[in-house]
């Protein structure tokens, strides 16, 4: 295997968000290189399933109020999520099937993590209104997260390009959710503040995307 080619293909992916570039990709590329060296038969789908299982476990742990361990699983899932694409590029196994599978399971992890945090929060509340507000926040985050991802899929399908990766990108969302889970170990209030801030960012980003599509200013 051409080592220089491997490095170039692994590290280069247009459209990576800031957290992917600065944190996730440097770690995931090392995982991919190590795996290819000791287990050359590995396929992208293996990493897709691994990332999904780890992310869902992270959501379950947070729902059980095992916050710090759950947060580690959430961020680890985000990191490993990059490995399937890296393996696919280096082994020339890119496919619409693999992309669709990856996207579907990413949404499963997103929902598992958001509702794991929501359940972890709700289980510590006694007031009926607090339960209603926090459950509503969970639904809002779920809806915004899915719509952000769907708008990206629409842009790629119709215009062969994506919206710029900003604070609404999945890499940033997952890190914020992981940090939120850690904060819940020490302060319920700060956890709620982080979740609310994420909801505002996602809502603002989604509004901009809708306006761009409506006014035909994208692409």
Supply database-style keywords.
219 residues; mainly alpha; Four Helix Bundle (Hemerythrin (Met), subunit A); 81% helix
Sum this structure up briefly.
The protein is mainly alpha-helical and 219 residues long. It has a single domain (3-214), classed as Up-down Bundle (Four Helix Bundle (Hemerythrin (Met), subunit A)).
How would you characterize this protein structure?
By secondary structure, the chain is an all-alpha fold. It has one domain: CDP-alcohol phosphotransferase transmembrane (TM) domain (Four Helix Bundle (Hemerythrin (Met), subunit A)). Helix content is 81%, strand content 0%. The chain contains eight helices and no strands. The radius of gyration is 18 Å and the shape is globular. The model has no long low-confidence stretch (mean pLDDT 90).
Helical fraction: over 70%
Oligomer: single chain
| Total number of strands | 0
Which strand-content bin applies to the residues?
A: under 5%
Profile the largest sheet.
Answer: none
Distance between the termini: 38 Å
* H/E element sequence: HHHHHHHH
Q: How many domains would you count in the coordinates?
A: 1
Task: Give the CATH level 1 class.
Answer: Mainly Alpha
């Amino acid at each position: 295997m051409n080592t220089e080619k491997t490095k170039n293909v692994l590290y280069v992916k247009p459209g990576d968000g800031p957290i992917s570039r600065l944190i996730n990709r440097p770690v995931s590329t090392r995982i991919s290189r190590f795996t290819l060296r000791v287990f050359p038969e590995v396929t992208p789908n293996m990493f897709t399933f691994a990332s999904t299982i780890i992310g869902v476990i992270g959501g379950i742990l947070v729902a059980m109020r095992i916050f710090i361990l759950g947060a580690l699983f959430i961020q680890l899932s985000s990191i490993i999520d990059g490995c399937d694409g890296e393996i696919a590029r280096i082994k020339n196994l890119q496919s619409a099937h693999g992309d669709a599978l990856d996207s579907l399971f990413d949404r499963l992890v997103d929902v598992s993590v958001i509702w794991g945090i929501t359940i972890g929060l709700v289980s510590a509340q006694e007031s009926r209104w607090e339960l209603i507000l926090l459950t509503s926040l969970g639904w809002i985050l779920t809806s915004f997260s899915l719509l952000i991802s769907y708008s990206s899929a629409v842009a790629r399908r119709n215009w062969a390009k994506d919206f710029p990766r900003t604070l609404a990108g999945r890499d940033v969302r997952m890190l914020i959710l992981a940090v939120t889970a850690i904060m819940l170990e020490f302060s319920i209030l700060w956890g709620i503040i982080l979740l609310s801030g994420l909801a505002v960012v996602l809502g603002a980003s989604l509004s901009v995307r809708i306006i761009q599509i409506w006014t035909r200013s994208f692409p």
